[in-house]
Amino acid sequence: MNNIHKTAIIEEGAKLGDNISIGAFTIIGSNVSIGDGTVVDSHTVIEGKTTIGKNNHIFSHAAIGTIPQDLKFNGEDVELIIGDNNKIREYTLFNPGTIGGGSITKIGDNNLFMGYTHVAHDVIIGNNCIFANCATLAGHVEIDDFVVIGGLTPVHQFCKIGTHSMIAGGSVVTQDIPPYCLAEGNRAVLRGLNLNGLRRRFKDRSDINAIKNAYKALFESSNPLADIGNELLQKSENIHVKELASFVVNTKRGIPYNRK
Predict the structure, then answer these.
(1) Fewest Cβ atoms nearer than 10 Å: which of 114, 151, 155, 224?
(2) Which parts of the chain fold into alpha helices (H)?
(3) Reported pTM
(4) 3-state secondary structure of 186
């Protein structure tokens, strides 16, 4: 049984699962689908072709699925997909995709979006990420699993941030941040490995040691970065080292590190 406030507006065509709560003065558009157990607090707008999974909590004054902030957008059929168990806090803004970026903005599961977070068009986000207040993701950004982005941090369009990495608050990200790394600054540069995050999530200490050695080989050497990355791909049998090396070899925007 759903709990829908009498002042909420649910447009004809919207699809609601079971045990959904919708607060006062909230508007749900006709092409919206919301999964079981999701809570939508008061004064929220969810519109466009938006699919929301199960057991999410969307707090008051969020704007979800509103048209992309892209001057090229001309009313095309685009989509926003949100997974399960996400917490989307007050005054957040999530936009769908655009034709030029694949038409889909996609968010995974178990993420926390703190107040005023912006997820722009064509952004792809994995699982178990944390975005602190006023984190701002420009169009076409890709975020892998277990990423933490500090408050007041913008990420430039088309940047990619690798798994288990952390961006310090107040940074400005204009290049790709590899997996397992810690970055900080305006413009953000690598400051080392996200060791606290790795120690929390990696049971095998040998994996952390392997990543440490790979980081030193890549970013504490005068040799060309791509050459070291390809060498690690060929010689290392550790899957995490391979992931780090592959990211570096395939970067499109470059890696921000201080070359020796």
Answers:
(1) 224
(2) 195-201, 205-219, 225-235, 239-250
(3) 0.97
(4) strand
CB neighbour class for 153 (10 Å; exposed up to 12, middle 13-18, buried from 19): buried
pLDDT digits (tens, 9 = 90+) for 243-252: 999 999 999 9
The domain ranges of the chain are 3-143, 198-250
Number of alpha carbons in the 13 Å side-chain half-sphere of residue 154? 9
- pLDDT, tens only, 120-167: 999 999 999 999 999 999 999 999 999 999 999 999 999 999 999 999
Q: Is the pLDDT of residue 213 over 90?
A: yes
The dihedrals phi and psi of 51, each to the nearest 5 degrees, come to: -115, 125
CATH entry 1.20.1180 includes domain 198-250: yes
Which contacts qualify for 223-232: CB closer than 8 Å, 24 or more apart? Answer: 225/255
Instruction: Tell me the catalytic residues.
Output: 121-122, 139
Q: For the domain made up of 3-143, give the CATH fold.
A: UDP N-Acetylglucosamine Acyltransferase; domain 1 (2.160.10)
Strand partners, 173: 155
